[in-house]
Amino acid sequence: MHAIYPLTLAALLFAVGVYGVLARRNAVAVLMAIELLLNAVNLNLVTFSSLLRDQYGMGQVFTIFLITVAAAETGLGLAIVLLLYRNRGTAAIDDARELGEDGAFGLKRVPQQAGGGAGGATGPNTPAAPKAVTK
Amino acid sequence: VSTLALWIPLLPLLSAAAIAVISLTARGGDRTGARRAVPALAVLPIAAAAVLTFVVLFGHGTGAATESQIRYAATGGPEIWLGARVDGLAALIAVLVGVVATAVQLYSVSYMAHEERYTSYAALISLFTAAMLVVVYSTDLLVLLVGWEVMGACSYFLIGHHWERPEARSASIKAFLVTKLGDAPFLLGILFLAHGAGTFRVQPVLQHAIQQGGHGYTAAGAILLIGGVMGKSAQIPLQTWLPDAMAGPTPISALIHAATMVAAGVYLLVRTYALLAVAPQVSLAVAVVGVATALGASVASLFQTNFKKGIAYSTVAQLGYMFAGVGVGAPFAGLFHLFTHASFKALLFLAAGIVIHGAGGRESLAALRGLGRFFPFNSAGFLIGALALIGTPLVTAGSFSKDAIIDAALSRQPIIGYLLLGGVILTGLYIGRLFSIVYVAPPVDEHAVHHDPESERPMNWSLVPLMVGAVAFGYLGTWLQARLAAPSDELDLLPGPITPIGLIAFALGAIGFGIAWWYATRRAEAVAPAPSEPSYAAAGWVHAIAEVGYAVSDGLRRVQSGALATYAFGSFLALAIIMLAREVTR
Q1: Alpha carbons B299 and B309: distance in angstroms, whole number
Q2: Who wins on pLDDT, B275 or B481?
């Protein structure tokens, strides 16, 4: 098989992943997009490993490593998202901006609800209706 | 002996690991019994390592450098080697590190006896020692970088030892960030040099630089490397962390930050001197930075209201002299000053520590005014340290090394030489001011001292070897020079004990000392110069640098929007730019 097919696929996967990371608001969707990025890299590694006739199979070894690391990363990420959701009732990453500086460039600052979750303690202000929705 | 040197850093590392294991496992049940083992575990391995560094020094003798190394990682590109290279320079600095670390651990056993967090403190000193020994002996720039960073991390934890105090917290963060600001170019410099030479090993990198005649990657790598060195050795504009680091426990501020860690920068500068020698513009930059630091820090020391910070700025100034010495082409003179300075600066710090201890831990000059007279032995110690600092000929060590630097500077870069010579009058002024205020001026409150001759005796004894060193170390110059192999050129030869330049420098220093004495004993406001005084503006450069820092951080602050998407966008943009740059430059 010509190498152009898997490489094009990897490039497309990567592009979709970049779009997902940049444009999605839901933290779970962002995590999935990151998985796409990693898998695009995996595909590239395997492709070049066979294309270059890598006698040690380093590309494939690294792919195994990457799958393991990606699994660990997703587990950790999902745990964080879960905590975020429990504390705020939403998993939208745009709303989690407490570490931003006043007067920063970029998006307009989301108006803070009273005691808006600094430290992430379960306050009385936890909205009852979760509005974790994508656009 | 280099095989031995390869394993020396393991001893303090094991000590740190053992203490860590004890403090983790002994939680709960029998804590006191386990804690009793900590001092022995802290002191004995470090002392053994110190003895081994002496074995390496004398085993090495004056012969050629030896190397032994293990290939650690075959990366496909430049390989990484775990190795030890023993030459005169490395052997001597390792001895300095070993002896100082042993002294710190011994001193801390009693000094920190009642501290709750003594275990972690002792483990961190051991880890620091291991890291510094790795830096000193390493043959490989990447391994050196690992030791360098571990040192920085240990220093962060040790400065912040009293983390319940806000000033200790902010000082530790400041030290970490400021030294990291230098370490980022340091890492880049290593990569540049390795890219140029095709290997990370120090010796081939230097040889490559000599063969290439120092252009392209060499000059860029050298100037980036110096960024890291400036951070560690507290040169302008990265000097700000060292005076604040005095918030740590006294043994740490006196010995780790005044004698050992700052020496790492000067050591690396001398170690990679071949890079400077082939790039004259870079070495001129080093000399200019050194002079600016020497003069600027001397002026800043004049306006300190805290006793220890006054001495800390003096350390910065003397490091500036060392930098200037290396920069004008006299690496041995700079290194010699490092050794003599370590002895008399430790003397000044420990003498100051006794007065501070006697005054119940107060450090401000206003509180300490005139209290030194109740400690006659200690006054003599501080006076000897002060005389060594201004370079009294014949009887103190400081004159030998400082004259060597000024001599070399005058014959190579006359402007820098005259500036350094003029700087001695500032040295006299600031140390004269500190001495006169604390030890000569009439005491404000005679009952402020808790005088207890019994408990002070062991501390007084600790001054004796340092006094001997501050007086006699200068005569070891030729012995040191033989150890460090031949000097690079005739400029680096040591001048005799009495030189005309040395006498002029001493006269200037003595004039400064006299003026400060006259002023400080008569005027009470000498302890805290008012910001409205016109002379205070001279120290304004400290503020100017801080203002620049604030302005830059205020601009950068706006990037921190807190929105994840903007950060991700920044990363992808940077990736795209790097890939584009690669395509364009291909």
Answers
A1: 13
A2: B275
**Strand pairing of B66-73 and B80-86?**
antiparallel
Identify the H or E element spanning B67.
Answer: strand B66-73
The residue with greater pLDDT, A129 or B483, is B483
Q: Are B200 and B141 in contact (CB under 8 A)?
A: yes
Going by the DSSP 8-state scheme, the letter that residue B488 receives in this structure is S
Q: How far is A25 from chain B (nearest CA, A)?
A: 9
Per-state percent for chain A, helix, strand, coil, to nearest 5: 60, 0, 40
| Global ipTM | 0.73
Report d(CA B85, CA A68) in Å as an integer.
39
Task: Measure CB to CB from residue B566 to each of A18, A99, A106 and give the nearest one.
Answer: A106
pTM: 0.81
Region of A76 (left: φ > 0; alpha: ψ -120 to 50; beta: rest) is alpha
Name every chain B residue with its beta carbon within 8 A of the beta carbon of A96.
562, 564
pLDDT score at B32: 64
B572: which chain A residues are within 8 Å (Cβ-Cβ)? 18, 21-22
The whole-number pLDDT of residue B532 equals 57
From the CA of A129, how many Å to the nearest CA of chain B? 23
| Angle at alpha carbon of residue B341, lines to B324 and B443, rounded to 5° | 120
Residue B575, pLDDT above cutoff 50: yes
Looking at CA atoms only, how far is residue A128 from chain B in angstroms? 24
Q: What is the count of residue pairs from A and B with beta carbons less than 8 Å apart?
A: 51
> With helix as H, strand as E and coil as C, how does B224-284 read?
HHHHHHHHHCCCCCCCCHHHHHHHCCHHHHHHHHHHHHHHHHHHHHHHCHHHHHHCHHHHH
- Assess contact for B160 and B172: CB atoms under 8 A: yes
Give the pLDDT confidence score for residue A114 in this predicted structure.
Answer: 44
Contact A25, A134 (CB under 8 A): yes
Q: With beta carbons under 8 A apart, name residues in chain A contacting B566.
A: 105-107
Q: What are the tens digits of pLDDT across the range B158-178?
A: 888 888 888 888 889 988 988
Percent of chain A with pLDDT over 70: 76
Instruction: Name the residue with tokens 């050794």.
Output: B339
